[in-house]
Design a protein that fits this description.
The complex is a heterodimer. By secondary structure, chain A is mainly alpha-helical. In chain A, 72% of the residues lie in helices and 0% in strands. The relative contact order of chain A is 0.10. Chain B has four helices and eight strands. Chain B is α/β, with parallel strands linked by helices. Classes of the chains: A mainly alpha, B alpha/beta.
Chain lengths: 172, 178
């Protein structure tokens, strides 16, 4: 007979808290670039875990599971930020551009600075795709878009990234 | 062709948030679960199980940068916070209690103006800890990798197998093979 896995309880969350918290916070702060935002999102992540545990819906409570929750919270954060910025200006979407092949070796510190300067939609897409290494369909799921729309968003985001990156290089 | 943006890959690295944030979020989680019977705290306590120091004598040390020391003792000795950190108006940690194994000790940032200097202020220390560890060599290596000074390598002394380190804050720890 196979025993049902016991759903996680509150004590399980507190037991992994000290180990999991720096991982969740570390994941968030290296991606959102702000300690204050990372703290808010870390709180949201753990309180969401509390709710999920109370509903009995967490069969396998691990740091990796919490980071998955944190990734959704980060995507939500950029979505909110995107909505706020859209009120200020029309989103410059337009038709997807076709891409020139780009063969360059990126200076990672420079590239992270460029990423931090980008708007929330592009930043979200590039972070999930490249920093987290998610496949396009998973990026799409986090951003609530179709895979096709996500591909198009990534093309625009890469184009914008390259423009800023090369602009900075020629300024320097 | 390789995608240049693949260079951005960022593995998850653990970074501790501010100790006050860590303690506050833990309190919120405990409060959310209450009155979950698996977490029922002893009367008067704000956290389950661990807030009371039960031994008669408890060491209490002054540590330069207590916030960083909390992380260090966690990393090297698997210490757990059992109370605090209580942060004073001037930003210094006035008290935090840590537990290693079955033993608890307290610490704070130094208050030299109240005759409570740290080893850095003194240029040495007059006290030390003896801590039982499962593997003295492994703990020694972990401590040194985290910035401790290897004072005495693992050897037999007083009938015990032990090593001695000075942690990065100047406190002396003798690691006794259990």
């Amino acid at each position: 007979m196979v025993t049902e896995p016991r759903p996680a309880q509150g004590s399980d969350l507190l037991e992994i808290y000290d180990r999991a918290l720096p991982q969740v916070y570390g994941y968030l702060v290296t991606r959102c670039g702000s300690a204050a935002v990372a703290e808010d999102l870390t709180s949201e992540t753990f309180l969401a875990a509390v709710s999920a545990i109370q509903r009995g819906g967490v069969p396998d409570l691990t740091a990796a599971w919490l980071i998955g929750v944190a990734r959704h919270k980060l995507a939500d954060h950029w979505r909110r930020q995107g909505r706020e910025e859209r009120k200020l200006r029309l989103a410059g979407g337009g038709a997807p551009q076709t891409e020139d092949p780009w063969d360059a070796r990126l200076d990672v510190a420079e590239a992270r600075a460029v990423l931090a300067s980008m708007g929330p939609h592009h930043r979200a897409a590039l972070t999930l795709r490249y920093l987290d290494g998610l496949p396009v369909r998973d990026v799409a799921a986090h951003l609530d878009r179709t895979p096709q729309a996500t591909e198009a968003l990534l093309v625009r985001a890469r184009h914008a990234f390259r423009r800023v990156y090369e602009g900075r290089a020629s300024d320097g | 062709m390789a995608d240049p943006l693949d260079a951005l890959r960022e593995p998850v690295i653990a970074l501790a948030p501010r100790p006050e944030f860590t303690a506050e979020l833990r309190r919120r989680i405990v409060a959310e679960f209450d009155p979950d019977p698996t977490l029922s705290a002893p009367e008067g306590a704000t956290m389950p199980e661990t807030t009371t120091i039960t031994h008669t004598v408890t060491p209490y040390i002054a540590v330069h940068d207590a916030a960083r020391a909390i992380e260090w003792y966690r990393d090297v000795f698997d210490a757990e916070i059992v109370d605090g950190p209580h942060v004073m108006d001037d930003g210094r940690i006035g008290s935090v209690d840590l537990r290693i194994g079955d033993s608890t000790f307290g610490m704070s940032d130094p208050y030299p103006e109240e005759t409570w200097p740290s080893p850095q202020d003194l240029g040495g220390t007059a006290t030390g800890f003896r801590v039982k560890v499962a593997d003295a060599q492994a703990t020694l290596e972990r401590a040194v990798a985290a910035g401790a000074r290897n004072h005495r390598p693992v050897a037999e002394q007083y009938g015990r197998v032990q090593a001695t380190i000075f942690d990065p804050f100047g406190h002396r720890w003798t690691l006794e093979q259990a």
